[in-house]
Amino acid sequence: MQASSLSAASSCAQSAPVRRWTTEAVLALYEMPLMDLIFRAQQVHRENFDANAIQRSALLSVKTGGCSEDCSYCSQSARYDTDLARERLMPIGEVVAAAQAAKDKGASRFCMGAAWRGPKDNDLDKVLEMVREVKALGMQTCVTLGMLKDGQAEKLKEAGLDYYNHNLDTDKEFYGQVIKSHTHDDRLDTLDQVRDAGINVCSGGIIGMGESRKNRAALIVQLANLPVPPESVPINNLVPIPGTPLADNPRLDPFEFVRTVAAARITMPGSWVRLSAGRQEMSDELQALCFLAGANSMFYGDHLLTTGNPEVDRDDALFARLGLKAV
Ligand code: SAM
Ligand code: DTB
Ligand code: SF4
Q1: CA–CA distance, 210 with 225 (Å, rounded to integer)
Q2: What pLDDT sits at residue 5?
Q3: Residues 111-170 pLDDT 10s
């Protein structure tokens, strides 16, 4: 997994060389003694970032539930009985008020999520207005709306969108076992459209869905080997949702989560690695280990989309205890 296991190729989008990772090389990272792995991740982190600065995004579900898609982990799929009330697209005034409140508490980016396979054009128009108004508050903007059709990414760019979140979620080989209504290639198509429109890419995955360590390593490789790696890489720990097929999945060893963060940091040195879903169940000590392994971004606010996140007061206390600063 040292430099010798990488081959350089030139990139069209950026003049810096593209690092081509193999699953074997990333598996070798996972198999390092944990202290050595964290030390290496921390070295890479310090070469590229301020190790005490954490980016904070607030999240809001602007369209909840009733999604046509069959994603076995998701509370919002209409295919499972998850006890979630289906809601219409939120009125713009409520969205802007939530963004202002998030800004006042110290979030730098506002991410709006919709439970869609992809946006219809008339829904997209309403989201464009949300992007414009949130941007006008002086916040960075992010949306996650599912798969995009031709021309939609360009409209989002024109409205001032900074980031589009669209996760690869899991290894291409494992994808069909958890997501049955669209493909890994569909996800890649949307990522291409976002990249081509000049919007920053936010793409990561979920771990703890029953995938193997090799699957986890392969997901990291698929993200790192994109023509340009995502600027933001959310690593989600599965939040088990009653009523979904993954509700009773065995919990993953938390150190495996830390190893995944470290692998993301080492393979994507210039990316913001986000400690994402699953933080509510993590101790402060485990979160500190994730920061040491190279995580430098988080969701900040009392809720994710349909599930909870640590309370702002608890996060503020954690930042104070660890001497972290928000960016
Ligand atoms: N419908 C859009 C899509 O699928 O891209 C946007 C919303 S979707 C809820 C956004 C992401 O949330 C998913 O790609 C997945 O990574 C994450 N997610 C959803 N349910 C989760 C769960 N139970 N645990 C962890 N992450 C989850
Ligand atoms: C991401 O990678 N994680 C966020 C955000 N992008 C959209 C979503 C997490 C959802 C967790 C389950 C829920 O709250 O419904
Ligand atoms: Fe729909 Fe996204 Fe949930 Fe899949 S992950 S069911 S596409 S909201």
Answers
A1: 23
A2: 42
A3: 999 999 999 999 999 999 999 999 999 999 999 999 999 999 999 999 999 999 999 999
- Position 258 scores a pLDDT of 98
Give which of 319, 316, 318 is closest to 284, Cα–Cα. Answer: 318
78-88 residue pLDDT tens:
999 999 999 99
**Helices assigned H by DSSP within the chain:** 23-30, 34-48, 92-105, 121-136, 152-159, 172-178, 184-196, 213-224, 254-267, 284-292, 312-322
Binding site membership of 305 for ligand 2 (Cβ less than 6 Å): yes
Paired tokens of 274 = 């986000």
Q: Is the CB of 140 under 6 A from ligand 2?
A: no
Tokens representing residue 184 in the block: 């890994």
Q: What distance in angstroms lies between residue 305's CA and the mean position of ligand 2's atoms?
A: 6
Task: Write out the catalytic residue numbers.
Answer: 67, 71, 74, 111, 142, 202, 274
DSSP readout, 164-219?
EE---BS-HHHHHHHB-SS-HHHHHHHHHHHHHTTPEEE--EEE-SS--HHHHHHH
Per-residue tokens: 226? 């994109």
Question: From CA 235, how far away is CA 240, in angstroms rounded?
Answer: 15
Mean pLDDT of 195-202: 98
Cα–Cα distance, 213 to 2 (Å, whole number)? 20
Are the CB atoms for 237 and 280 separated by under 8 Å? no
How many CB atoms within 10 Å of residue 198? 10
Query: Could you identify the residue written with the tokens 């903007």?
Result: 141
Residue 53 is inside which H or E element, if any?
A: strand 53-63
Could you say which ligand is closest to the alpha carbon of residue 114? Answer: 1
Q: For residue 172, is pLDDT > 90?
A: yes
